[in-house]
Queue: 3 jobs
Job 1
Amino acid sequence: MKLSSKGRYAVMALADLAKFEPNEPVSLRDISLRQGISLDYLEQLFLKLKKNNIVISVRGKKGGYVLSKKATDIKISDIFFAVQEKVQTMGCEKESKKGCNGKTVKCITHNLWDELEEYINNFFKNKSLEDLVNQPKINN
């Protein structure tokens, strides 16, 4: 299982937004410079985030983006949903009669991956943007 860049970058950008200026608009250019994410890519992500009411755009000279609600109320799963990121550990759909091996029966490890997927998705439903912003820094 691997998250795509859109899911990872959306979370990074929103954590940046929440951490640096929680009540003031932040430009995508500033986020781009701090996080090393392409400005064009951020613009695409923030269109989706705005459409899904995660952020609000503010126009004007000191414009940019602000969170639409408190960071404690924005779950990581909300962010993934907004940018169409799907955390999936199986090659098949849960409801499908066919397994990921193309046969009519599911593979012997199907339930293991299904349980892992549920665990991961619950983890993201319970983690808020605030959790990321307030976590202690790890020095490498």
Note: The longest strand covers residues 55-58.
Job 2
Amino acid sequence: MLLVRGNRLTRSLSVPNLKVMEVSLPIELQAKLARLAAQQGRDSNSLVVEAVERLVDYDVWFAAEVEKGLVK
């Protein structure tokens, strides 16, 4: 899937059933994200997807660990 960002086309992850979600980020965070993406030779979208995946996976793990602790 190709996404238009400003006047650039960027390639998104080839994931079936991928839906586009618009997220507003403060300008300062957008700049940091752009710098990090450039340093890593990646596009900003892939970094955002990775960050959200990590957050969600961590929250799922943490909730499971809390549940284990409550059961004991």
Note: The chain has two helices and two strands.
Job 3
Amino acid sequence: MNPADADLQALQRGDESALSRLIERWRRPLFAFAWRYVRNSADANELVAEVFVRLYRQSMRLSADTNLPAWLFTVLANLCRNHHRRERRSPLVHLEAPTGAEPGTDVVADSIAVDRPGPDRILEHDEALAALAAAIDRLPHELKVPLLLHHYERMDYATLGPILGCSARGVETRLYRARQYLRAELAGFLRETVGS
């Protein structure tokens, strides 16, 4: 049984400020996951906003012991999957941060930092990040979600289980399969890099 979330209970009692507290608490981790999944800030913000709209609309249907993090990330993961499907059918070019840039990083400050490696090392690093990001983007949804939540959001297997609808052992299996997939996808890139 999951502990009750006080803000969720307050929202269910009609306390409108509880939604603001929930948004404040969950906006950043949800955005980080969405951004890594869709790789676009505007789309990630829209998806996170939709999660909170759904939370507000469905709050009365949720039980008092709802595992709120699992509910939020499950809804967001499904929204991200649907968004990704729409993007594949009709891709748009987004004006976004360079590939591999994390949300909130300052590209200008990074470029003038002292003790930076040479341009060749920076290029290799950027190419490696781009190859990894592309390989993660090609992961099937059922492997992409646990990989992003475990490695970037630092969620443990027990937390991931309810989000993915499987046991901790199932999470471990999905993460193993995701790593195997990435290893196979990046094998050619790694051979090129090592060979040059």
Note: The chain has nine helices and no strands.
